[in-house]
Amino acid sequence: MSFAGEGEILSALAAQAEDYDDDERIDTMVESSRRLLKTLGEEIADPRIVVFATSERIAENFHAAASETLALVTCLLLAGPEDDDVAEHFRCAPGPTIMVADRSAEEGLNLSFADAIVHLDLPLSAARIEQRIGRLDRYGRRQGMIRHRILVPSDDDISPWAAWYALLTQGFRIFNRSISDVQFLLDDFEHQVFETLLMSGPEGLVGLANDIRARIDDERKSQDEQYALDRIALAEEPVESFIQTLEDAEADETALEKDVDQWLLGILQLKKRPFVWPSEDSFKLAVTPQTLIPRLPWQAELKLDDSQPLTWKRRIATSRADVTLLRPGTPLVNVIERFTRWDDRGTAFITYRIVPDWQGEPWIGFKLCFTIEPALDIADLLAPTRGELAASRCAQRYFAASAQTVIIDVNGDDVFDPALLGILEHPYRSEGRGSDINLGSRPHLLAEIIDPGTFPRICRDARDGVRQRLARQPEVAERIAEAARSAEIDLQRRQSRLQRRQSAGDAMARADIALIEAILLSIRKPAIRLDAMGCFVVGAKTAGAHFIG
Known about the structure:
Distance between the termini: 112 Å
Oligomer: single chain
Number of helices: 19
Helix content: 40-55%
Number of domains: 3
CATH topology of the largest domain: Rossmann fold
């Protein structure tokens, strides 16, 4: 069925189309391509341009005109069964090169090495334009941004083509970012575009830009949130062990709190008080004149104040939104961890431990505390960058830091005697009967026991020997291999997912891939870092009864 006069209108349109001269616009685009090659040539060697046309005839005509007009430019035509050969020639040809293609080349080809696109028409299909751009904007692309040159049938500001171009740039933003991640919305968008253009004209089409942009932004936000969940819940690797590890770590919150309090309260001398008396949970932490954390700059970094309730109990944190749950990753815990690495007090000591009933010559040995962790450096522990923190967290997801404490005698042999180990485990006693003696501040007493010229070499030998033994331990080597294998599998899986999507705009996925690539070496070759080292001399009350030269 047709409306009255429709036949005459269609005939007039057909006649107008037949009278339309392609030669003029082809000449215009050949000149535009020449200028584009010149601009690209100022920045890169051997620039390459892909020219897309919907019509095979237009593609052939443009190729003929470009071949005749553009001197010193290789002009190729992609048509027929020899597409792969032409595309390879396009990739390898020396000097400036143009490849002309019709609609059949809008899918499948990998032209990521090309620098720009010339559009001889502007299809009324965002999906088709996305396909054209997707030939160049592919995973693994090394070139810079993709330049575009576009020819529309009319340059009239109120023409449908001008309105469609405005919608593409302002609504879809298709020339700035891939829309393949929202491709299932495109059919609805295109139906809406055609209906609006028919019912309201070009002005109505321009008015769609804000609505389409908002719907795309909402969809991407939803996808980002889902992707974040998928990384844990829907990953292709088993997550049961990861979840079990978290549950095991939180199984005894009281023990976790007690262990950390020994450091925060017992060593660093922070003060812990109930946030609201008399309940001990939640609580607040405060510095005192006795706190062993420098006021500047570290106390300021802790950001402790009376207004922030804290807890180690998850049930309390989940029932009260104002309470901060303390866990590794919480800013306060992170600052304390970095301060501990920064502060070298107590990381080296020489102690004479008096055992009144000790029989025989004094015993001399070492206690060494090593941390095995990904080999990632933080340039400034006070102010690490977001990138450094992200790399550290990501690396420890695959290879968690572990502590190794080794006790050896002066000859480098392991100590297994329970009685001796018990003596060494006692905390330092500075007062009272049988108090320990700090030989580090009494070099004259140390000199009566060990030759001062030999002692540094003995310490280095002890450190290096234990480090080498730890590196050779089968369980350590197995942990390293398993962590590297897990990271490599995760990297390959993420690369495969991104390549299948062929989405240039998935910034979160690309950032994850780049992060794993950056930390792989730190996992394959972790640091075995000496955290603390002490020398013990165990003997009767009189120091200097034994001498090692």
